[in-house]
Structures are given as C-alpha cells and as structure tokens.
Amino acid sequence: MISLRSGKLLAAIASVAAAAALAPAAALTLAFACIPEASAAPPVPSTGAPHPSAPIVRAAGMTLEIRRGRVVVTGIAKGSPADRAGVLPLDVLLVVNGRSLVDLDPISPQLVLGLLRYEQTLRTRIVLGRGPGTMSVDLPQDPGETWTAPIVPVELHPGMEAPLFTGLDLKGKAVALLDLRRLPVLIDFWASTCPPCLKNAIPLRRIADQYAGVLTIVGVSLDEDRRAFEAFAYNQHLPGIQIFDGGGWRGPIARLFGVAANGIPHYVLLDADGRIVAIDALLDLEDDIARLVSHRDP
Does residue 158 have a cis peptide bond before it, meaning omega lies within 30 degrees of 0? Predict the structure, then answer.
C-alpha cells in the first residue's frame, strides 16, 4: 500500500513507471491501493473557520465550544434561527432531538455536528441549560446553511479510542459510531472507482457471513457522487452499514481517519469499547477479528 506520508513515494512512483514499460497498465492497477493525486485537489479558499485545534462547532447561527465536557454557546449571529429562538451566549446544550449530550464521554465537535445536522426533521429541538433552569427551543432546518466543525488531525494507533463520527446510511438514517459499541466494528473506507476495493468486496462479504451477529461492518464511501455510492454498494452487495461521506478524500470521516495519507481500501478494526485494535489490510485483520470474537462472553 502506498502512503503519501512516506518519503518513499517518489521511489514507489519510479518503480511503477519502470514496471509499466514491461506490463500493461491494467495489470498494475490492482497491485496498489488507490491514493489521491497530490496535485488533483485545488487549494480550498479560507472560510474563516477556527483553527483546527479549537473545539468549535458553528450551526444555526450558534458558535459552540466544548468546555470541560460541556457544549457551551459562545456566540450568536444576529438574525439567525438561534437568535430568533432566544438562545443566549453561555447557554449549555443538554439535549438534541431527544439525545442527551450529558452522557457522552468523551464528546467531540464532530459528534455534536452530526447530532445537529443529520437528523431527518424540519426542525431541531434542543434543550438548553441556563443558570439553574432549562428551556426547550425549536430551530428550523435550513438546507442551504453550511454547518462546520474542525477536522482535528490525529495520528491513529492501536489502543487509542477511535474518532467518533455520525453519517447517513443507504436509507438516509443517521448512524453514530458511538451507538455501535456493543460489538467489535470493522470500518472499511472505499470508493466505487477503486479497483482494489472491488476486489475486496468478495472477502468482505465472506467475513460478514462468518461473523454475522458478532461483528459490525461499517463501510465509508469516498465517492463524491451519491448515485455512484449507492450503485456500487447495491451491485456488490456490500455488507453491514454503508455510509456516504460525500467529500472524496476531503470528506469529514475520511479526514478524521487520515485516509488520504494511507490510500484505499483502508481498514480499521475496533473492539466493543470503540478502541482501535489494528489498522491493516483486510485479510491481515482476520486473526485479530477471530481473537476479538473469541474473547466475547458467550
């Protein structure tokens, strides 16, 4: 697998070029992971978003910060839905559409954004803490509004807790990684344009059948076209939960897991508590999967 993070990239490219003189290009395609072209993505203009290290979310005219495990309103845009609803600075978000934020530990900007953004309702109902009391507020959804959260670059390694995320599955249902912690989870990053991803669809289905009921598979598509995502997932009978990240290599989930630096297919195995067990090629993870499943209580 080729890594953009490695200094060996130029040597790898030179090797591919030399091999191309001796073999058809099609024969070389399946030998490598799919990686983003370094010059393919144009520079992204500044949006005035906070520095990635700042635990900030902007939604519905509210600026929210994570402070000591609480989601605090630190700013309100004049005339915004939050302003019209009476939300004030220093209010604390307690509940979003019936989901308590108090019980989430740890809580991340991405998780807050997911709970606010992906609910399939015309209005978002939140419960705020204000001083000793609480108040309930309805915020209308504006499909044209851009809601932002920082993507914090983290070097992932076994033993650490996996970054939390929320996404939409094939049926448009919101899926939160936090809610899947009852079973080990295999996260599969793929795209419909990736030949190695197509090749791995067969062993992935076999693993899903072998560990049905004791392993959750979550596929994350890096396709930018939702129709391509849906067609590939249905035609290849991809197992488990399939999520459309929607931003290619720059998608929020892909960026959380550093996929662009590793290429696809990219697999991350989590235990039932959401901690990373291994990051490896699919077939090399089978021993880890078997060990995780065997350690579960009967």
Answer: no
